[in-house]
Write a structure and sequence with these properties.
alpha/beta, Rossmann fold, 16% strand
């Protein structure tokens, strides 16, 4: 299957590296809130469903974080999982059998791994390694991982659907950068790409995770049965697209560049993920939960928070298409539009989900 083909070329759009004012490390408070919201649920899932006998003769417990970026959120999530595994051993009277931990931090090769490495907590209780590569293919040896974690990563597609960039295709997405309020053909192209990617993702993990191992997936999405417009990310991309079209009208950027640009992000529902899991057949669903993220107290700072959040995640892909000189103008305009929108309408809340899967025995 495609997941085994290491010759595949996947698009890489890492978060903004470094520790500057626009970096992901300094502007990932939204993602941190989601990790915090999932903390107790993840602990409970590990304690209730993890069979510590999966270690067999091994004396090390291996955790993989897929789409780790540069921190610090990955470190909070890892520490939480290690505490849960330790508690599982202690609760079964096996305190002396607690294994050593190895954590494998995975992201695209273009991720700022240097920033990740220098940010490691001084008191970390695990051996660490960086593993470059797309998680839509194999990145670990067969049956080598006991616990997989991925937060705010699997909504990124492996690539932009080819059809939306083809001027001769009914799915050509002229004048838009995403599928919200686009033609049905555009939406179907994104859905098809998501289905293909999740098939590869689950096939790869089924080979890498030991029988009885767990996979914890945290992702932004939309409620079951809801329209694409109910996904907060989709609405934020629509605002970004309108800013780009404003700059086209001002002559700052060419219309052709906007027409050839689309964001490879798909906001799935838990039902869609469950369907992918059923088609794969190698995992059971142990938990599905909505994550309630506390609202920001100071709503006056929300426009800047949203703009900084989107910039930290999208600056790399935008630079690649439009050049660095456009970025400040684009996000000044984006912040202004957020201020107008927030002052007059209900912007809605980000919808996030936690899904815990268990590797079944074949």
């Amino acid at each position: 299957m495609a997941a085994d083909d290491t010759s595949n070329v996947f698009e890489a759009h890492p978060m903004e590296g470094g520790d500057g004012p626009n970096s992901y490390a300094k502007n990932s408070i939204v993602q941190r809130g989601v990790v915090d919201a999932a903390k107790e649920l993840v602990k409970r899932a590990i304690v209730e469903t993890l069979n510590i006998d999966i270690l067999s003769s091994s004396n090390s417990f291996k955790i993989a974080d897929l789409g780790c970026s540069v921190g610090p959120n990955t470190f909070y999530a890892v520490e939480n999982m290690i505490e849960a595994v330790e508690f599982k051993y202690q609760s079964q009277g096996q305190n002396s059998q607690i294994p050593e931990f190895q954590v494998l931090f995975n992201d695209h090769a273009s991720n700022d791994f240097n920033m990740l490495f220098i940010s490691f907590p001084e008191n970390k209780r695990y051996y660490a390694a960086g593993v470059p590569g797309s998680f839509y293919s194999r990145v670990f040896p067969n049956a080598s991982i006991h616990l997989v974690h991925s937060s705010y990563a699997i909504h990124w597609l492996s690539r932009v659907p080819k059809e939306v960039l083809d001027k001769h295709s009914p799915a050509w997405n002229k004048g838009k950068i995403h599928y919200l309020n686009a033609r049905d053909e555009v939406v179907r192209a994104y859905e098809a790409q998501y289905v293909e990617d999740m098939e590869c993702f689950l096939h790869a993990r089924a080979q890498e995770i030991v029988y009885g191992g767990l996979m914890v997936l945290i992702f932004p999405g939309r409620p079951n049965g809801s329209a694409s417009s109910q996904a907060w990310a989709n609405m934020s991309f629509q605002v970004l697209g309108s800013c780009l079209m404003d700059l086209v009208r001002k002559g700052v950027v060419s219309e052709e560049k906007v027409d050839s640009f689309n964001i490879p992000v798909y906001s799935m529902s838990p039902k869609e993920l469950a369907a992918a899991v059923e088609r794969n057949g190698c995992f059971s669903i142990e938990m599905v939960a909505d994550l309630l993220v506390p609202p920001v107290d100071d709503t006056s700072s929300m426009p800047q928070l949203i703009a900084s959040h989107i910039r930290a995640g999208m600056e790399g892909i935008l630079k690649q298409q439009f050049g660095e000189e456009l970025i400040d103008k684009l996000f000044d305009l984006y912040r202004e539009k957020c201020e107008e929108h927030i002052s007059t309408t209900d912007t809605g809340k980000p919808v996030n989900f936690l899904v815990v899967l268990r590797r079944k025995e074949d």
